[in-house]
């Protein structure tokens, strides 16, 4: 990891209960996302089509000018159809509550989440706040007002 990398302050909300759980960590040197794990006291079963709010037991202090994005894990998605409902979920720099992961089971079978299971990835990304200005006209582009499927890329309708 570069020595000039921003620091993410992480607080265990119940240090006695969750000391056995790893902090978010990058699983490879080139990983963009750090794995988040479930801080559950008991197994949580998510029925097909159902959603669940899964606690991580952590609160974070995202540096100003950044956001934390909660993203799905591709392995859960391909093997079980489990993903993050609001992907990516955004954690703002001024939020100090518990990081929770909103999972949905799009698969055909119930999915069990257990304590310590890797349930999502945390990506830290820069953000820019803009000033909004009302104008009478917008600059013209080749695409114009074409919406979904109107770019002509990929041959789709």
Overall description:
- Helix content is 7%, strand content 34%.
- The protein has 157 residues and is mainly beta.
- The chain has one domain (9-129): Deoxyuridine triphosphatase (dUTPase) (Deoxyuridine 5'-Triphosphate Nucleotidohydrolase, Chain A), CATH 2.70.40.10.
- The strands form three sheets. Strands 1-4-8-6 form a four-stranded antiparallel beta sheet. It has a four-stranded antiparallel beta sheet with strand order 2-10-5-7, with no helix packed on it.
- 22% of the residues are buried.
- The mean pLDDT is 93.
Overview features:
single chain; 157 residues; mainly beta; Deoxyuridine 5'-Triphosphate Nucleotidohydrolase, Chain A; 4-stranded antiparallel sheet; 7% helix; 34% strand
Low-pLDDT regions: none
CATH architecture level-2 label: Distorted Sandwich
Sum up the overall morphology in one term: globular
Fraction of helical residues? under 10%
Let me know the CATH homologous superfamily. Deoxyuridine triphosphatase (dUTPase)
Q: Quick one: CATH class? A: Mainly Beta
DSSP strand content: 25-35%
What's the average pLDDT? 93
Task: Please state the structural category.
Answer: mainly beta
Overall tally of domains: 1
Task: Say how many strands there are.
Answer: 10
Q: Give the count of helical stretches.
A: 2
Distance between the termini: 43 Å
């Amino acid at each position: 990891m570069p020595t000039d990398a921003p620091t993410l302050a992480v607080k265990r909300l119940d240090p006695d209960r969750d000391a056995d759980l790893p902090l978010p960590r990058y699983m490879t040197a080139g990983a963009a996302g750090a794995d988040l794990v479930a801080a559950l006291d008991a197994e949580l079963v998510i029925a097909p089509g159902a959603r669940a709010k899964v606690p991580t037991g952590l609160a974070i202090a995202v540096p100003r000018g950044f956001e934390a994005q909660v993203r799905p894990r591709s392995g859960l998605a391909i093997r079980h159809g489990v993903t993050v409902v609001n992907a990516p979920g955004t954690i703002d720099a001024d939020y100090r509550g518990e990081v929770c992961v909103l999972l949905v089971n799009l698969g055909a079978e119930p999915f069990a989440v257990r304590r310590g299971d890797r349930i999502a990835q945390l990506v830290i990304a820069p953000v820019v706040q803009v000033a909004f200005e009302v104008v009478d006209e917008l600059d013209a582009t080749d695409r114009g007002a074409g919406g979904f499927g109107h770019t002509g890329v990929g041959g789709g309708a």
